[in-house]
Amino acid sequence: MTDARPLLRHTLSTLAYRGAKALRDAGPKFADYGAPDTSRTPAKILAHMGDLMDWALSMVDGSRQWHDSTPLAWDKECERFFAALKKFDDYLASEKPLQAPVEKLFQGPIADALTHVGQIAMLRRMAGVPMKGENYFVAEVTVGRIGPDQASPRKEF
């Protein structure tokens, strides 16, 4: 593994940690919140995040495929996002060659997904289902912990 792979995997674990927090207990009604005529609903944002992780995997394995998915039910879309994140992380954890530069993977699909986690967090506040803020610097982010079950927050406010 190159030196950049562990950092990229830590970044994916950070995305999983923050994503799990933003998605947890939002409820199925939240999926359609907003003004769908002028912006993406939370369900569309989450579907896009899953598409980003699928695309990132296709970039590293050399198949280079993009799909615009139709959002599933909220709970199924949450499952799809974490499954896509795991497939990408599993590839990075392997010895398989990367067919894309890690810098490009970070600046493209990963940074985009982190931005979208922030959008979901903001939309939750607007929809009346806020989540607590947290000092993410002290959060227990563990490489390879990619699913919705994450460590409990250490310092929320």
Please provide a written account of the structure.
This protein has 157 residues and is mainly α. The protein has one domain: dinb family like domain (Four Helix Bundle (Hemerythrin (Met), subunit A), Up-down Bundle). Helices cover 55% and strands 0% of the residues. It has helices at 4-23, 42-61, 74-93, 102-127. The longest helix is centred in the last third of the chain and has 26 residues, at 102-127. It starts with a helix and ends in a 30-residue tail after the last helix. The relative contact order is 0.23.
Helices, strands, pairings?
Blueprint lengths: L3 H20 L18 H20 L12 H20 L8 H26 L30
Helix pairs in contact: 1-3, 1-4, 2-3, 2-4
Rounded average pLDDT:
95
Measure the end-to-end span: 38 Å
Element pattern in H and E: HHHH
Counted by DSSP, the helix tally is 4
**Low-confidence spans:** none
Quaternary structure classification: single chain
Shape: globular
Could you describe the largest sheet, including whether it forms a barrel? none
CATH class: Mainly Alpha
Fraction of residues in helix: 40-55%
**How does CATH name the architecture?**
Up-down Bundle
